Amino acid sequence: MRYPSIVFALIAAAAAASCTVAQTDDPALVAQAREIHDRVTTLDTHVDINPDNFLVDQPNYVNGLETQVDLPKMEEGGLDAAFFSIFQGQQDDFTPEGYQQAHDLAVAKVEAIHRLTSELAPDRIGLALTAADVPRLQAEGKMVALMGMENGYALGEDITNVKKFADMGVRYLSLAHSGFSQLSDSHAGETEGYRWNGLSPLGREVISEANRWGVMIDISHPSKQANLQAMELTRAPVIASHSAARALADHTRNLDDEQLLALQRNGGVVQVVAFDSYLTIAPEPTPERVAALTALGEEFGLPNDGGVRAALRTLAEERRAEYESRMEELDRDFPPPPWAAVSDLVDHIDYVVDLIGIDHVGISSDFDGGGGIDGWDDATETFNVTLELVRRGYTEEEITKIWSGNLLRVMSDVELVAAELNAASPE
Ligand SMILES: [Zn+2]
Q1: Residue 304 and residue 230: Cα distance in Å, rounded?
Q2: Cα-based distances in Å from 178 to 89, 173, 343
Q3: Ligand 1 center to residue 425 CA distance, Å?
Q4: If you measure from the C-alpha of residue 242 to the centroid of ligand 1, how many angstroms do you get, rounded to a whole number?
Q5: How far is the CA of 187 from the centre of ligand 1 (A)?
Q6: Which CATH class, in words, describes the domain spanning 16-277+338-419?
Q7: pLDDT digit string, tens, across residues 73-97
Q8: The pTM is what?
Q9: What are phi and psi for residue 47, nearest 5 degrees?
């Protein structure tokens, strides 16, 4: 994080999307992009959720929220499928209590997605457990929910938890988040130091278990060394569920060329993420702007540890309108640094395609977890990504691979490896 998260969140919350159909676009090209967008399966591999948004008889994911993703927004934007993130942070210590707390939150998130697909809206969205489930559910006229676990901290030191979460429907797993876990070093180790010089002994066992139970290993958050070791060790292809190319934006969350080339050899896929500070290294906001944003946030009682969108939602309508007009004024007085746009996202896609080929790249948003860029700031704007791909000359076949084909290929490869491992040594 380069400056206090409240400032970052306020910048994101304040910026207005403008990257839509441009005056200069040929109407035939736009019409072609619309047709392609309608035909391809669009799949986003990283959307965060709050389990409280999946309760009955109140505003929820089905009837619509202020979140960047919910069912009405997915329908409006033609976002067909999403991996919902079973994310939990971690305690500083590695105690049974800390593990239990994270485990319980992970289970609550899994249950929220089960409730969505079995109780709240089973006629509109289904849970996919296999790659083949995705087209099957779509043929039934449904959107598709999938689940991926972000941070293996919640597994604790009990290796059987890999199968337990796999049985609940979790289909990818990252071994760490923004700090080392009992399983792996994190990308943050570059500045904070490493604990394991890559994977821990338990982390290595977890990779074997994930291979056996058909869970894709996600290399978005662990350290470079951990990722190279994971790709050496795994029997199946891996994914990076939400990262970009480090050659274009020097951020620890991005994959450098060495990791991308290893990913190509591994047969995996990097899901380029619509996260402002991973796509472009913007100039720092002026100290005057930071001071003004901090003061405004304090005045309106907004948290300084993220969650600004949620806090804004709790303000009375009048107070919120007042906040918005004050924010506009502040943007005029102290202009924000430029925000990454859909064209930056596709620059990263182009870069990955040039380096490792069209078969190893996909798309993710990190919506409701810090993601969102100019032109794709919520699920309703998903078409803009397809439009930019068409503008760059990608064919429908290539766009199909980028939007979901590559990811589903990896998912089905992982299923095959699991079936082979189980046939070789049954449980
Ligand atoms: Zn993340």
Answers
A1: 35
A2: 8, 14, 27
A3: 34
A4: 7
A5: 11
A6: alpha beta
A7: 999 999 999 999 999 988 777 999 9
A8: 0.88
A9: -130, 125
